Amino acid sequence: MKETLHRIKVFFQSVGFKKYAKRFGFFILGLIALLLIACGGLSIYFNRNKAEIVAKINTKINENINGKFHIGDFQYKFLAGFPNFTLALKDVELKDNKWNTHKHTLLKAKEIEVRLNVVSLLQKEIDIHKILINDAQIYIYKAPDGYSNSNIFKPKKKKTPENKEKPETTIDQIDLNNVRFTIDNHVGHKLFDFEVASLKSKVNYDDDNWQTDLFLDTQINSLAFNTVHGSFAKQKRLKGTLHVTYASDKQKIDVKTDGLKIGTDSFDIVAFFNIGKSNSLFGINIGTTILWQNASNLLSGNISSKLNRFNIKKPIDVNCDIKGDLNAEGDPKIVVQAIIKDNELSIPDGQLNDCSFKGIFTNNFKTKEGFTDANSAVILSRFSATYENIPLKIPQLSINNLEKPIATGTVSSDFDVSKLNEISNDKWIQFTEGHATANLNFQFDIVDLYINKPKFLGNVNITNTSFHFIPKNVHAEKVSVQLEFTQQALLIKKIAYKHKKIPFSWKEKSTIS
After folding, report:
1. pLDDT in tens, 281-301
2. Cβ–Cβ under 8 Å, residues 383 and 397
3. DSSP-derived 3-state class of residue 55
4. DSSP code of 420?
5. Over 442-475, what HEC string results?
6. Quick one: which H or E segment has residue 60?
7. Closest CA to 377 of 323, 308, 442, 303
8. Which helix (DSSP H) or strand (DSSP E) does residue 293 occupy?
9. Which pLDDT tens digit goes with each residue over 98-136?
10. CA dihedral in degrees (171, 172, 178, 184; nearest 10)?
11. Among 225, 229, 189, 226, which Cα is nearest to 402's?
């Protein structure tokens, strides 16, 4: 080891090494000097051609808009974005021609960096390589009559044989830092409002089509598909990479992302947005594994206010499908599906253990009756659980009309009667044996999420039960009871028991209205 270190030391002290190290040092200094000279040359070029460059930028922008573009000041940024030429525009404003009517500025930025291709610039052409927008507000407004301030952009001219070979100006990269982005749609009563801490996008073009992997870190102030009902994911942090593609012939944007963070939870999202004048349909599919309370708090207020009265202890698998029209009034169609397995469900009346079921929420229970609370429903299928250690099975439960909820379904149970001893803390009765079965169709109103006016149809059978009635010190053995619930009354069809070791049976009907 010592011999190896000695050889390395001798090599570094050799004349040959020092000779090559000196040449390498001069090479690095030469590169730095060349870089400084190039940047200095660009600075001189900018100062001498400042007016012409700014005029060309204004021309490039104004030839594509119907409105006013204003720059408060501009400067050349030394070394920034090298080898591209970086021009910083200060106090930028972009307004449409109807600004005096609606007062919503499309773009207001403290600084916009424009990075230009140096080779094109020396040839008196403007080729924008990258745009960085810092400390800005972007406000897209759509008036009730359908007019939008984003209409400031002129439609692209169709290519002719004369200009077909001339390349169009494209922007390869867009970065946003500290930008408030708002879409205020008064046609559909929708409000999307984001505080973008960072957005980075590098765009790949294929004729009029494009594709990008867009990194986004933003705060959601509003994601309201209906401003009457409130925002989804309000005040949640959204962070991740979105794979975005645009198809020019379909005028459609497709978005896909895996592991997008909303708050503390991860989501897989597939979405599309049609942006044609005659087609503004959209669809968003969201999949995740999430805690009940976290999922509820991502929904709009009219839904979460009801769901927050319940809770499921362990994470659940959820899929949410949202479809609608960006220009249509009211809510979009919403379908939420959840799979619950071996979980704990808390309800206003108590707690259900060992709970498993499939749950569906829809705001379009009856087709063509609108996406409203009155036409919303919660449907549970293959429900099984234990309530106070009593097993329950519900093949299907439907809760319709969330404005005035009505629950209907079928419940069955099969258990040893001794389990009833664990329900009450007051030891007034003690069961020692017996079995009970129940098969009931039910219907009841839900008032403030509590059961009201319950109605049952079906039967309950209790066989060979023995119990001690503690307050009267009465002991009964081998009691069997058959009950039948009808729409008019409760029918006691059979009672059998032992009295002083003599069996007794009564089969005559008794009606309790």
Report:
1. 999 999 999 998 888 888 888
2. yes
3. helix
4. G
5. EEEEEECCEEEEEEEEEEEEEEEEEEEEHHHCEE
6. helix 15-62
7. 303
8. helix 292-296
9. 998 999 999 999 998 887 765 555 555 556 778 899 999
10. 50
11. 229
